[in-house]
Amino acid sequence: MEATEANEACGKRCAVSKERKLKFQYHWLEKYPWIQYNSTTDGMLCQYCTHIYKEDESVLKHTQGAWISRPVSNWKKALDKMKTHAASDWHKLAKAKYDAERQIQSRTRALLCASTLNQKAKKSTL
Ligand SMILES: [Zn+2]
Fold it and tell me: Which of 25, 102, 109, 110 has its CA 20 to 30 A from that of 43?
């Protein structure tokens, strides 16, 4: 009899702790590295989408700002939401633009470096 009671008690406790476990899981970042988790707001934003769409009214209206200006914090369906967002056209486009921007930035830096070297070279020949 005692064992059954203990099991019941554990069952209740486990149910409670399962409920409390609903929070951001850092290992999600391994699968979705674009997630930016803010522990103050306890919500997730998308690194690419916030960067690309933060001032894009039409996208903000269409997505209701989710992942961009409105943090996602529904942990019950968090994985579904991540999966859906990762597969969305908005996100794919944002990622492509973000990557392109970064490529341009690194190329510009390389060019600036090269031109500085050229100027130095010119000066030394004068
Ligand atoms: Zn995104």
Answer: 102
